[in-house]
Amino acid sequence: EVKLLESGGGLVQPGGSMRLSCAASGFTFTDFYMYWIRQPAGKAPEWLGFIRNKANGYTTEYNPSVKGRFTISRDNTQNMLYLQMNTLRAEDTATYYCARMGFDYWGQGVMVTVSS
Amino acid sequence: DVVMTQTPVSLSVSLGGQVSISCRSSQSLVHNNGNTYLSWYLQKPGQSPQLLIYKVSNRFSGISDRFSGSGSGTDFTLKISRVEPDDLGVYYCGQGTQYPNTFGAGTKLELK
What is the rounded distance in angstroms from the CA atom of residue A33 to the CA atom of residue A19? Predict the structure, then answer.
C-alpha cells in the first residue's frame, strides 16, 4: 500500500526557516518524481515543485512563486522527501502536502503557520 | 501560468442525481508528446485531495464508473451520475502540461 506521511510543520516567525519531511512507503521510491503542493485554508492547491526520479538524475523544478526560497531534496536510502523553506512569509501559511508523480497519492498534509 | 477556470463555484444536487462541472484552461493543454494532462480531484472535508480522473478521461484505480471525464484542448467536463453521499466535497481540475502545474479554484458539491 502506498503511504506518504508528512512531518515537521508548526508555527514559525516571519523570516524564519522550516524543513518539512515526507516518509514514503509501499512503492519503489527511486522510480518516481515526487512533489510538494500547498493549500491555504479554503483555497485551491498550489504546486510548489518536484524532484525527478533516478532515471532523470533527481533534478528539480520549482514554481516561480517560491523559487530561490524553497528547496526540494530526497534521501533515497531512507525513502524520504524534504522541503526546506527559508525566508518564510505570512502568505506561506498553508497545509503542505507531498504527492507522488501523477498526484495519484497524497500525504495527509502538515500545517505551517507563519506568524509573529 | 495556465489559468484554470472552473464553473460553477458551487452545485446543489439531490442524491441519485447527475451533475456536470466545467473546467476551462487559458491555453491548450495538449503537450508536445500528444497527451493532454488534465486531471480531476475530490477533496472531502478534512482530507487530502484524491485523484479521480487523469489525462482527461481515465479513471484512477478504484474510482467508480459514475465519474466520467471528457473534453479536449481548453474545455473539459467532469460528470457525476447517481450522486451518493460520499461524493460530496470540493472538486478541482488541475493541469500538468505546463510548469507550474495549476489548479482550478474548485467546485463545491452539496446536497440539495
Answer: 19
pLDDT mean across residues, chain A: 97
Phi, psi of B16 (to 5 degrees): 90, -10
Mutate to test the interface with B, among A3, A52, A103 (most CBs of B within 10 A): A103
- Cβ(B14)–Cβ(B22) below 8 Å: no
Under DSSP, the state recorded for A76 is T
Give the integer Cα–Cα distance in Å for A13 and A85.
Answer: 12
**What residues of A are in contact with residue B60 (Cβ under 8 Å)?**
104
DSSP, collapsed to helix, strand or coil, labels residue A5 as strand
Of the pLDDT bands very low, low, confident and very high (cuts 50, 70, 90), residue A75 is: very high
> What torsion, rounded to 10 degrees, do the Cα atoms A13, A18, A24, A29 define?
140
Q: Do A104 and B106 touch (CB under 8 A)?
A: no
Cβ contact A35:A104 at 8 Å: no
Chain B residue with the nearest C-alpha to that of A97: B48
Query: What percentage of chain A exceeds 90 in pLDDT?
Result: 100
